[in-house]
Amino acid sequence: MNNENQNIEYKRIWQDDNLKSICAFANAQGGVMYIGIDDDGQVLGLDNVHKWQEDIPNKIVQNLGIVCEINTQEEFGKTYLEINVQPSNVPISYKGIYYVRSGATKQELKGTALQQFLLVK
To answer: How far, in Å, are 41, 118, 121 from residue 33 at the CA level?
Structure first.
C-alpha cells in the first residue's frame, strides 16, 4: 500500500469523526479513504463489512449531503472498505465547519482562509 498523502487516508476502524476527512477530500481534489487499514498501510480487515457498507453511505449523505462510491476490497483474506470521494464544486461542511485536505492532513478553515475558500467555490 502507498503511504497516506493528499489523496489517500487509512483508518483502522470507522468512527463518525472520519466524516471530517471525507468533507476535507470533497473540498479539495477528492480522495480515497480505506477503512480496515492502519497508518502503515497494513490490512487489518473489518468485521461486519456488509453492515458498514449500508451505514457509512447513509452517514455521509445525512451529514455531508454528498454520495460516495463505497467498495469492498480483499487482501490476504481480510476484507476492508474503500470510500471514493469526488471533489465537490460547492462548499461542503460537517456540522457547520469547513475542512480541506492539505498534504496528509485535514485542516479546519477559519477566518480569511475560510472566506477565500467560499469565494473561490
So the answer is: 12, 24, 23
